[in-house]
Amino acid sequence: MGEVFIPDGTEWFIGELVEEFKVAGQEKNLVHINTILIKADSPEAAYDRALALGESANRNFINTEGAEVRVRFRGLRGLLPIYDRLEDGAELLYEEHEGVSDEAIEAMVKPKEALAIFR
Length: 119
Hints:
Elements: E1 12-23, E2 29-39, H1 43-55, E3 59-62, E4 68-81, H2 102-108
């Protein structure tokens, strides 16, 4: 993958934070990838802000079953600029795939009831 183009004046970024949840006494963990919006005037500032936001998620709490849960920020999975101004219809992210068959394209598209927001 090549270098990411960052237009002059970019002020919004999308960060993907990796958080791990561990319940005391349980071997299995749970990992969340949280996609966040970051306002910054440079990639370096966006990176620093993403790390600060991630670190602020570190905490311990007691769950509804009375067990202690430890939440730890493990790092960033991604950090990307938003190219458009934030407004209705603005493109936030894109993916590029080459040589994709019709069947594979159809498999990418989900009916309304299969979209996470309607499940």
